[in-house]
C-alpha cells in the first residue's frame, strides 16, 4: 500500500490541475473608446525607416524616458515599460502615472499579454544605433518581451550625439500624433529651455578659462566620463563649455577613463560635474572624508561641484532645469582653481 | 535514496524472478504514465494562467489549431507556447542527464550542477555576452562549447583513478568555484546593460529561450533520449553478466562513454536554451527513483520528473511570486534546502565512499 | 623511531626558513609602499614615511593614507586567508578546501545585497559589517548542517553543504539583484576582491579580529596533526575531535569572515598557499600554519603590486590578478597534488 501512495499523489495532482482551468474564465474584453483620429499618419524612425498608418495612433505604449517626453507634449501613453521601478526611474519618478498601465519594471521583462489587452497601435522606444535596436528590444531581453513588436509598429528617435536632437525628435513625433506643441503650457517648456541655453552660453562665455570634468567617484576607483559617449556632455561642449576629454579611456569600455585613487588628481578642472545618479548635496564632503585623495582635486576641495544629468534626458523641461542649475554653478565657479 | 542501477535480483528461482520482473515492469509503466499525465496537465496549466485567464479547452484548441481566435492564438501560440515548451524540453533534458550522471558515477550528488559542467557553460556564455557583445544563438553555442570543455577538463583532472568516489565531486566543486570566480570578474567588466543581460542569463530562465535554440534542443531530445534508453538497457545487460565482463570490458566502457556523452550534450543544450537552472538535474533522478521503487533508474521517468519540476518552478516564478523572477531563483531556493535535507538525513552516504 | 631526530633536523632548517620569509615579507611590504599606479620617487616616499605628515603633498597623502594602510591590510588579510585555508584543509582533510567552498563568499554577498536594497546603505565602510555577519552566518550554517547525522561533519558533507548553501544563497542574491539595478551595480564590484579604496577605518575595524584569530590559530598545530592521522587515531590520542573541529571552524569564521568582509572574495590564496607551505615543511601543521601565515601575504601583496603597476593609471583588482595566476596553480594541485588521500 505504502509503495503505491506516491503514484496516487501524482495521479490526483494531475486530475486537480486539469480541473483548475475550467473554473477560470477568459477575460479578454477590452473597451476601445476615444474619438476616431484623423489620418493617414507617418513618421521617420531613428533607424531611417518610415512607418505609415491609415489612422493616427492613439493607443501608445512607450519606454520610460520616451513616455516622459511624450507626456511633456500632452500625449499620454496607455502603457509604460521601464528598466527599473517607476518610482526610482529618474525620468518617471516625478510624473503622475495614474491611469497608465505599467507593463514592466525590470530590464528585459515586458508583460506582453497585458500589453496586448491595451490594444496598442504604436510602440515608442529610442533607437540605439550601436545595438541596432529600439529600447526594450535589445539583445538579451526575454524572447517573450520582444513579441511586443508584433502588437504594433515600433518607432523612436535615434540616441546619439545630442539630447537636443532627442527632445526635438520627440517634439516632432508628438506633433505628428496630434499634440498641440504651440499650446502655451507646452511651448513654455521649450521657451524655458531656449532661455536656459542662452543663459548657459552667456555664463560660459563670461568665463573663457573655465574647464570642467565629469566624474563619478566609486569605492575602488574614480571614473572620468568621456564626452564622446555622453550626448548631454556633447551638448554642453557645443555651447562652449570646456569639458575635459580624458586621454586614455578604458579600451574595453570607452564611456569612462578609470583612475586609481592614487591618481585622482590627474585632472584639475575648475568645476566638477558629478554623476547625477548618485549625487547628494552632502556627497562632496562625504567623499572628502572617505577618500584621502578626493580633496587633492582642487575644485573638490573648494566645493566647486555640480550634478550632471548622466541619465538619458528626453524633455526640454528636464534639460532646462538641469541647465539652470549648471549655469548657477558656472557663475559661481572660480576659473583659476584648477590648472 | 540511492541511484545505483543494478540491484541483484532478490529471488533465486526463475519463476519468482519472472514475477518480480513483471511487477517491476508494471510499476515502471504506471509511474511513467502517471508522470506523463502530470507533465501534460502542468504543460496545459502553464498556458492557461497569466494576465489573460484561459480555459484548458481554449488552450488545447489553440495549440492543436482546432479553432481560430486571433487574440487567444497570439497569447497561446506566440507568447505562452514557446515558454511552456522550453520549460518542458529543458526539464526533460536536465532530468535525463542528471540521472545518467548519477547512475554512471554511482553517486546521488554527481549532478552536472556539481561537477562544474553548468558553471563551464555559464562562463563561456557570459564571456560571449560581455567580451564579444554576442546574443542569441551565438551565446547558446558558446554555452554548449563551455559545457563540453568543462566535461573534458573534469575528465582530464579527475578520471585518473576512475570516476567513482567523492574525489570526482570534490574536484568538480573546486572547478565550479573556479569558473564562478571568473564569471564574477566578467560581470565587473561589463557595462550595466550587459551585466543585466549576463545576470539574467546566469540565473536561468525558461522565458529567455530563442526559437532556434529550442528547436535544437527538441531535436536533440527526440534523437538522444531513445539512444540513452537503449544504451542504458544494453549496459545493464552487460553489467549483469559479470563473468564475461572481461571480454566485454571495452564494450562496457564504450557504452558508458556514449551514455555520458549523451548526457553532456543534453545538459549543454538545456543550459544553452534556458541558462543554468540549478538543482533540477540533481533532484529529478532521486524523485523518480523514489516513485519507481524497486524498478529504479528509469531515464524516461527521471526526464518526466525533471519536466514536472521545471514546469512547476516556472509557474511559481512567474505567477505566484509578487514580481516575476527567473526560474532558476525558484529552483535554487527550493533545491538547496532539499540537498541540505538529503545531506542531513543520509547517514552512510554522506560519509563518503 | 628515528622520527624525532628527523623532526629536529627539519626544525633546525625550518626555523631559519621562517626568518627568511619574514625578511621577504618585509621586502614585499616595502615594494608595496613604494610602487603603485602613481609614480612617486623613492626619496619622496622615504620623506613621507619619515615626516609622517600626510598633508605636505599629494605624494605624501598617497603614501601615508593610501599605500601604508593598503599594505598593512594586505598583510593581515593575506595571513588570515592563508591560515584559514590551512586550518580548513587540515580539519576537513579536503585538499581543495577553502573559505569560498564553505559558502563564506555567498553569505557575505547576500548580506551586502540586502544592505543595499533593503536598508539603502552604500559604501565599503558599511558593507564590512554586513559582509562579516553574512560570512559567519553562512559558515555556521554549513557547519551545522554538515554536523547533522550520526558521524558529524565529515569532509565530504562539509563540501557538499558548502556547495548547497552557496547555490541557495546565490539564487536569493540573483533574485534580489535582478529587480534592483543599484544592488547589481554594487554587487558586481564587491564580487571581485580588491585592496583598493580600503583605508584606515576599515583596517582598524577588522584588524583586531584578524590579529586575535591569527594568534589563536597558532595553537592548532598539534591538534591538526592529530586529525590528519584520521579521526579514530586522533580520538586514540585523547583528542576531543568534535570540540576541536568546532573550535577550528570558529577561528576560520573569524579569519576568513573578516578578511572577506574587508576586501571582498579573494580566491586562491587560501587554497594554494597552504599547499606551498606543506611542500616546504612536510605534513607538520605546527610549521604549516606559521609558513602559511607569512607566505600568503607575500603572494597577496605581490599580486596587488602587479595589478597596480601593469594597468596604471588604472588598477587591476588583486582578485583578478590572483584569478589569472591561481588557475594554473589550482590545476597543478588537482593534477599532481595528494588528492589520492581523499
UniProtKB/TrEMBL annotation, chain A:
Residues 28-50 are annotated as: Disordered. It comes from the Bacteria. It is found in: Cell envelope. InterPro entries: ABC_transptr_periplasmic_BD, Bact_iron-sidero_bind. GO terms for biological process: iron coordination entity transport. Residues 28-39 have a biased composition (Low complexity). GO terms for cellular component: outer membrane-bounded periplasmic space. Residues 1-18 form the signal peptide. Residues 49-337 form the Fe/B12 periplasmic-binding domain. Keywords: Signal, Transport. Belongs to the bacterial solute-binding protein 8 family. This is Iron complex transport system substrate-binding protein.
TrEMBL record, chain B:
The lineage of its organism: Bacteria, Bacillati, Actinomycetota, Actinomycetes, Streptosporangiales. GO terms for molecular function: transmembrane transporter activity. One of its GO terms (cellular component) is plasma membrane. It is found in: Cell membrane. The keyword Transport applies. GO terms for biological process: siderophore-iron import into cell. This is Iron complex transport system permease protein. It comes from Thermocatellispora tengchongensis. It is a multi-pass membrane protein. Belongs to the binding-protein-dependent transport system permease family. FecCD subfamily. It comes from the Bacteria. The chain crosses the membrane at residues 28-49, 114-132, 139-158, 164-188, 259-284, 291-313, 325-344.
TrEMBL record, chain C:
GO terms for biological process: siderophore-iron import into cell. Its main location: membrane. Pfam families: FecCD. It is found in: Cell membrane. One of its GO terms (molecular function) is transmembrane transporter activity. Belongs to the binding-protein-dependent transport system permease family. FecCD subfamily. This is Iron complex transport system permease protein. It comes from Thermocatellispora tengchongensis.
